[in-house]
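ok new one. same drill as before - structure tokens go in, u give me an amino acid for every spot. 261 of them this time. try not to just spam alanines like last time pls lmao
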């Protein structure tokens, strides 16, 4: 957190939002940790218990043991507790209601932006959406809730009920290309925004982390809200090192006050 200038920074972010007409919000794992979703890279995260090299697309397709590990890891998330949006998600959704949000570009696969109220056509999911699994043979899609039930019933490697094909979570794996249409639209929106707000991203995963760079290279203002430093902090107009769920509701309240005045 920026000591001493915290309230001033909140005010400045609100002013930037009010004065902007094309606001892009870019979110990473830190935006969802307050909803109880583990940050894979943090201490105690998934990658402290599993080797990321076991989770490439190539291994998933060629190695049944790798697929079992995938579903085992996913099973850890199927703990029986529901995941809900946190105050940061609702704050971003409120920006859309206020007419101040062009879009959300997210690295997250949890569907929480939509659950909080953001429109589907304003959320661009660079890494896919874990609400679904897809058969790689016939294309049939399954709700991940159904996969949760099957895993809980003891299936260590669920397959397609239609053709017995391989089921893959509809998220981008290591070694898999980002969805081209989503990537192109994200680049376009980032390159044409006048304000980019990064929330909860360490900005080290590429090509997703290029979006804020496209924004500032096109002349946009940059705000970063993240618990830890990022490689882009020195390029930002405002940086706050704090939890998204603490900062964003305060920012949106200030925005509403300014719009109403």
């Amino acid at each position: 957190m920026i000591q001493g200038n915290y309230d001033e920074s909140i005010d400045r972010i609100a002013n930037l939002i009010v004065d902007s007409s094309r606001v892009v919000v870019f979110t990473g794992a830190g935006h969802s940790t307050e909803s109880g979703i583990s940050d894979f890279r943090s201490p105690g995260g998934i990658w402290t218990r599993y080797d990321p090299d076991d989770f490439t697309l190539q291994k998933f397709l060629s190695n049944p043991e790798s697929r079992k590990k995938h579903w085992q890891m996913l099973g850890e998330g199927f703990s029986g507790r529901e995941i809900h949006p946190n105050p940061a998600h609702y704050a971003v959704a409120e920006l859309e209601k206020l007419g101040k949000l062009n879009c959300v570009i997210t690295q997250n696969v949890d569907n929480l932006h939509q659950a909080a109220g953001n429109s589907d056509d304003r959320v661009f999911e660079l890494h896919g959406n874990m609400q679904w699994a897809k058969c790689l043979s016939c294309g049939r899609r399954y709700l991940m809730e159904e996969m949760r039930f099957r895993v809980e019933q003891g299936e260590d490697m669920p397959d397609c009920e239609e053709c017995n094909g391989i089921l893959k979570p509809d998220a981008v794996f290591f070694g898999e290309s980002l969805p081209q249409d989503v990537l192109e639209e994200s680049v376009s929106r980032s390159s044409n925004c006048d304000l980019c707000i990064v929330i909860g991203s360490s900005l080290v995963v590429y090509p997703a982390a290029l979006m804020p760079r496209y924004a500032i290279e096109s002349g946009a203002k940059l705000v970063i809200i993240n618990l830890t430093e990022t490689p882009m902090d020195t390029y930002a107009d405002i940086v706050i090192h704090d939890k998204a769920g603490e900062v964003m509701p305060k920012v949106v309240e200030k925005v509403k006050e300014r719009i109403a005045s």
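DSSP finds nine helices and nine strands in the chain. and btw Residues 194 and 219 are 7 Å apart (CA to CA).
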